[in-house]
Amino acid sequence: MLKLISLGFRVLVGVAVLGLGIGLVAYMASHREKPELKPEVFEPLLVEGMVVEPQRVERAWTGYGNARAMESARVSPQVSGLVVDRPEWLEAGASVEAGQKLFVLDAVDFELAAKTAEDSIASLEAQLSGLDVEESRLGRRMELASDEKAIAARDYERAQEAVAGGAGSESELDQWMSALRRAERAVIVLGQQLDLIPSRRADLVARIEGQKTQLKKAQENIARTTITSPISGVVQSVSLEVGEWAQVGQIAAVVVDLSRMEIPLRVSMDASGQIEVGDRAEVRARLEDEAVWDGRVSRLGPDADARTRALTVYVEVEQDQKGDRVLRPGQFVVGRVVESDAVERLVVPRRTIHNGRVLVAGELLSAEARVWPLAERIAGTIARGIANGTSPVVSDETRGGIPEVIVEAAQLEVGKYADEVSGLLSGDVEKWLSDAGSIRVREEIGRALTEVIAPEIAKWLAETDPGDLPLELRGELETMRQLSVVESVPVEVLFSTEQLFEELDDRETQWVVVRARDELGLSGRELLVSNLGQLSEGMMIQVDLGGGQ
């Protein structure tokens, strides 16, 4: 029961105070001293802007990759042997010229093989010369044997005639027959020897050629014991020392030509069909570096990486390999490939985009809207004047009537306890009305009245001839008519670019290429570029195009 009484008492006090405040407004209005009213001059926010116009933009694609030499040589021995010489200067990083000596291997075994082959050739050539003499002598003997055979044949014929005539015997005939057979056998033997001469000569010639081949191989192996660099460049690594045994195919050193480098850049698949062979490329060690290596796209990869969804673009860089700044094999770099054909695109400073939107200056469509800040200011001044003239400030004359007002209001709720409640509340009510309550009521009245009368003031300003207005208002009204309203335009960011567009801004370098997402478009609009953190859509501002041009 006591809680209910307490709750009711609090409600009663609040109702009594509110009723008292309202009841005393009219009564005490005449006792309030009117303060001096001072108009507040409206100063619109000055914002820099630029007119968005299409600019010729070269689209750039950024990719990453590791540099490699287009020409390199893995120097390997072509013969096995003991390393007997290596120049002192031959270390990683040393410059070499094509044909310059790198290693020398022991050539004793190859020199011995060459000497053996030379001796064999000399012996075989001597045999070949002897065969020519032998052939000549056999030919002569063949002539003599043929003559003897002819003589023996004639003698045998005469012996046959003599026997047939009874002048000879059979034994004599047999003797002449035997002599003829001996002569024939001699001719046959000599013929066989002469027939073997060509094959013997061919064998000797073949053996000579074989030994010449062995000699040439030995001489080549002797030359191969001197290992030279096949290209001009820089030594990347060395793996042989004096006294070590070099094996055929073993990598003795690696030489790279740094004058022509290639970088396989992995770029977005969106670049497919946009990048062409011959497009310009800029290669940097780091994205923020100013120093670049200039290159060109030499070829395009035929396929894409399914995992990274990247296209490989091969960029060729030519450089002075003896210069101070050299791109080296294996170096991780970032490349920027620029399209060869620039097209007109809309660009805005990167910092002006927030949540996919940019802010532009729009026109105020109605006359009342153009003068609204001035009308609102005038209405506010009038409303505050009215509120100040009717504020419930307690004076000495009215202070004594507060308890009676409280009693009258409280009787509706507490009946006979009204005097008791009045005694409890009179002091607090009097203090509140003299301090915070007065201010709060005045502010609420001012705000409410401003909302009521501001539209009428705006209509009046729009319809009134500016020449009939006070000079101060005329200046402000002219300023108001030059104001713009902040509008938000959704945009689609296509890509970023880092360059100067002096027609737009001679200092800004960070831009993005955009496309407006709505039917209003962006070309020709006044883009807002300053005080962006203070702007909100619908806000009235003054635009200065000089700062953004």
**What is the domain total for the residues?**
4
Percentage of residues in helical conformation: 40-55%
The general outline is rod-shaped
- The average pLDDT score comes to 80
Question: Radius of gyration, rounded?
Answer: 59 Å
Strand percentage: 25-35%
For the report, how would you describe the main beta sheet?
Answer: 9 strands, antiparallel
Quaternary arrangement of the chains shown? single chain
Number of helices: 10
Class by helix and strand content?
alpha+beta
Alpha carbon gap, first and last residue: 77 Å
Unreliable runs = 1-39
Write down how many β-strands occur, each being a DSSP E stretch of 2 or more residues.
Answer: 21
Overview of the molecule:
The chain has 549 residues and is of the alpha+beta class. The protein folds into 4 domains: 1-31 and 367-474, no CATH class; 42-58 and 342-364 and 483-549, conserved putative lor/sdh protein from methanococcus maripaludis s2 fold, CATH 2.40.420; 60-67 and 248-340, Elongation Factor Tu (Ef-tu), domain 3 (Beta Barrel); 108-224, Helix Hairpins (Orthogonal Bundle), CATH 1.10.287. Helix content is 42%, strand content 26%. The chain has 10 helices and 21 strands. The strands form 3 sheets. Strands 3, 4, 6, 9, 11, 12, 13, 14 and 15 form a 9-stranded antiparallel sheet that branches. It has a 5-stranded mixed β-barrel with strand order 1-20-17-18-21. Helix 2 packs antiparallel against helix 3. The longest helix has 57 residues, at 108-164. Mean pLDDT is 80; it is low at 1-39.
